[in-house]
Write a structure and sequence with these properties.
Residues 247-310 form a coiled coil. The chain is built from 9 helices and 7 strands; from the N terminus they run αβββααββββαααααα. It is an alpha+beta fold. It folds into 4 domains: 37-144, no CATH class; 184-272; 278-316; 358-437. The relative contact order is 0.04.
């Protein structure tokens, strides 16, 4: 058991050690501007109900939200870790990270005489997540969005309950704005009567009922009264100017809303047809609009069909057996017409034989024309020989061809020519139709 002397020595050591200890300044955060700083005002800290690393700072100028979450979890993970490699680098990152700061509410006056009550944060299922504070004249409430929570989805069996029909939202042609609160300067009483009452009970009460005389005491009384009235009139002037400014803003907003309402009205009248000056009835207007819509639909259908045909021609598809046979036939005819090589020899009578079917069409046509010319020459020569024999200039007898044989030969040649000509014309017409496709 230690003696009293030793106890006092231990107490002095503990006191010395407590005096020598210092707190580590990790980060400095400004919650107000230099203009708002006032030595008579002290901040009040309030905790958040959602996170222990969030807090609210309340002072005479406003309410500030601070969050240490950006770096506190890093620091906790670093302190709980066992790895020492790269510790300096990671600690440097933690030191350089900044806390979240947000100015939630700013008091218009920013006067230390009008303080703000300490903020209280509440989370209630019925009311919600909000912050509550107050001034000497009015309450202050800020509603926050509730944080998302993980909900357990329960699978419900299908029921015969009919689903509710969706109700169309009303027309929203206005913009919400905060409610204007007049300045509390209009509700504050004047301090001049209080000053006069204090003057009546002071040692200079005799000056109240006497005539005004030039003296230092009178000058001091008038100076104090002037300061008091100047302060009150200044506050009233600022409040009145704010009311005047808000009235002008209200007129502009009201004018804008009236214009928007007129635009909505004109659209409704255009749709309903109430603004028509031609005297057309509603049924006639509806029928006209339906007819115009049908015409427009027909035009669109024709355009779609045209585009479909163009796309069908542009796209490649497999040919059928008949189409392939037709193309082969066209290709064969084209090759037979393009071959313009001259060939000599051959039997003239091959046009009527089986071997003539394998010759090109153009060659068969040329042979038929040549045969026709030769036969015509022979006929002319025979006619000339008959004329000479009849005149008696020649005594020798010539070989005569009977008329029926010559007539049959000529008919045969003309039939072949007409047949070949018809075949060539048919092929030409078919090629022209193919080129137009």
């Amino acid at each position: 058991m230690a003696s009293p002397k030793s106890k006092s020595r231990l107490g002095r050591l503990l006191a010395d050690s407590s005096l020598s200890s210092e707190l580590l300044a990790f980060q400095a955060i400004d919650t107000m501007s230099p203009v708002e700083v006032n030595e008579e005002s002290w901040p009040v800290f309030s905790q958040d109900v959602m996170s222990r690393y969030n807090l609210y700072v309340t002072h005479h100028a406003g309410i500030v939200f601070l969050s240490l979450a950006p770096w506190i979890f890093r620091l906790e993970k670093e302190l709980a870790g066992d790895s020492e490699a790269g510790t300096d680098f990671r600690i440097g990152l933690v030191v350089n990270s900044q806390s979240s700061r947000d100015r939630l509410f700013s008091q218009p006056t920013s006067d230390a005489v009008v303080p703000l009550a300490a903020a209280v944060v509440l989370q209630d299922p019925d009311v919600g997540y909000f912050l509550l504070s107050a001034t000497p004249y009015e309450p202050i409430a800020l509603t926050f969005d509730s944080p998302e929570t993980d909900l357990v989805l329960v699978k419900l069996e299908s029921s015969p309950v009919r689903e509710l029909e969706a109700v169309p939202a009303p027309l929203d042609f206005y913009e919400p704005r905060p409610v204007f609160q007049p300045s509390h300067a209009f509700d504050q009483p004047s301090h001049l009567p209080t000053m006069l009452d204090r003057l009546r009970t002071s040692r200079h009460k005799t000056l109240v009922n006497q005539e005004v005389r030039l003296s230092p005491v009178t000058l001091g009384i008038f100076t104090d009264a002037h300061k008091l009235l100047a302060d009150e009139t200044y506050r009233l002037g600022v409040a009145a100017s704010e009311v005047f400014r808000r009235c002008e803003v209200l007129q502009a907003e009201l004018r804008q809303q009236v214009n928007k309402a007129n635009q909505v009205r004109s659209k409704i009248e255009t749709i309903s047809g109430a603004n028509r000056d031609d005297g057309e009835g509603d049924n006639a207007a509806y029928e006209r609009r339906i007819a115009e819509a049908q015409d427009r639909q027909d035009r669109l259908t024709k355009r779609v069909e045209g585009l479909r045909k163009i796309i069908g021609k542009a796209t490649t598809r497999d040919l059928s057996a008949k189409e392939r046979a037709f193309f082969n036939e066209v290709r064969t005819i084209e090759e037979s017409l393009s071959e313009r090589t001259s060939s000599e020899g051959g039997d003239r009578n091959s046009l009527t034989g089986a071997s003539g079917a394998s010759k090109p069409l153009w060659k068969r046509l040329e042979e038929a024309k040549t045969l026709q010319d030769e036969l015509l020459d022979e006929v002319a020569a025979l006619k000339k020989a008959e004329g000479v024999t009849d005149s008696g200039s020649l005594g020798t007898t010539e070989l005569r061809i009977p008329q029926d044989i010559r007539r049959s030969k000529l008919q045969q040649v003309q039939g072949l020519l007409s047949r070949e000509t018809a075949l060539v014309e048919a092929v030409r017409a078919r090629l022209e139709r193919l080129q137009t496709l």
